[in-house]
Amino acid sequence: MSEFQLYFMLGKEHILDYANGYDHILFVLALCAMYLMRDWKRLLILITAFTVGHSITLALSTLDIVSVNSELIEFLIPLTIFITAVSNIFRKEENRSTLSLQLNYGYALFFGLIHGLGFSNYLKSILGKDESIITQLLAFNIGLEFGQIIIVAIFLFAAFIIVDLMGRSRRDWKIILSSAIAGIALVLMKDKIFW
């Protein structure tokens, strides 16, 4: 297995690791909650905006250009999940204007910056003291994006079954999913405040 393949697999497995990466999975699901199968292009752009954000800070932190308190980041990650989920609950279905979509992409990019700092500790631990890490960073980020696309595909399939085939309302699906995610995020935030 090449070095690129190794880091690609590490990135993919890191995002799909529901035992240790559940906070990132929850964030991706919170981003997805507003969308259905027919919205897949918009959702793909949204997930890519998140990937761009976390790729930037992942690179900057891994290269020791940026350093942020890891305990703060561990609290901010569930906070981003909570904010995204709660905003889904109050967002109207009809609000699909260009400005609204651009704000969504901006939030995903900004919150991706925070999540990238969380990924960086993991990546630093496996990179060790390697001098040239550009290939590893690229492969790891592509693996993360691939893993996120798998999560999105599973989500869209579930949404298709529940909303389109079973006839449940899109609004109810969004509210139930977002409420559950917000509740889990609150518990995660509480756990990070009271070590």
List keywords for this structure.
single chain; 195 residues; mainly alpha; 79% helix; globular; HupE/UreJ family protein; membrane; transmembrane; Put_HupE_UreJ; transmembrane helix
Could you tell me how far the N terminus lies from the C terminus, measured between alpha carbons in angstroms? 40 Å
Our estimate of the beta-strand percent is under 5%
Tally of helical runs: 7
Order of helices and strands: HHHHHHH
Specify the helix fraction band: over 70%
- Counting DSSP E segments of at least 2 residues, the number of strands comes to 0
* Principal-axis shape: globular
Radius of gyration: 17 Å
Largest sheet: none
InterPro entries: Put_HupE_UreJ
Keywords: Membrane, Transmembrane, Transmembrane helix
Protein name: HupE/UreJ family protein
Transmembrane segments: 20-37, 44-66, 72-91, 103-122, 142-163, 175-194
